[in-house]
Amino acid sequence: MSSDDSPVRLVIPARTRFLRLARLTAAGIAGDNGFGLEAIEDLRVAVDEMCATLIEGVADGAELELVYRATDEGLLIEGSRPGTDAVPELHPVARELLAMTADDYSVHPEGDAVSFRLVKRRPVGTG
C-alpha cells in the first residue's frame, strides 16, 4: 500500500472483545508497508490503548469506526465513536505506553463524536 491508496475502514462494536480486530488490521497494514516486528508490536499496543480509551463507558450498541491510512512516512490511524460526552482522560499508564509506542497521538471531540488520531512512523531504513 502506498500513500495514494484508499484508506481501510473498519467498523466494530465498541466492546473490548472486538479490539483484537483493530490490532490485527493495524498489524497487517503495517507489515504490508515495511514495518518490522518491533514496530508492528508497538503499533498493536498503541492501537489497543487508544481504542480502549475511546470505548470506555460507551452505551450498548455503540460502534467504533477506524480508518487506516498508509502515508509516505508510515501509518495514520483515526478512530471515532458517537457521543458528545467529555473527552476520555488517558490513564497515566496508557499515556506512558503511548509515549513509548506511538510517534504522535491525540483524543479530541469532533462534531457529535469523540475521536483519536494515532501516527506511527516507519523506522528509518525500512520501506
Short description:
With 127 residues, the chain is α+β, with helices and mostly antiparallel strands.
Write the layout of secondary structure elements.
Elements lengths: L7 E6 L5 H14 L4 H19 L7 E8 L3 E9 L9 H10 L2 E7 L2 E9 L6
Antiparallel strand pairs: 1-2, 2-3, 3-5, 4-5
Helix pairs in contact: 1-2, 2-3
Structure characteristics:
single chain, 127 residues, alpha+beta, Heat Shock Protein 90, five-stranded antiparallel sheet, 5 strands, globular
Would you give an account of this structure?
- This protein is of the alpha+beta class.
- The chain has one domain (8-121): 2-Layer Sandwich (Heat Shock Protein 90), CATH 3.30.565.
- 34% of the residues lie in helices and 31% in strands.
- A hairpin with a 2-residue loop joins strand 4 and strand 5 (113-121).
- It is globular.
- The mean pLDDT is 91.
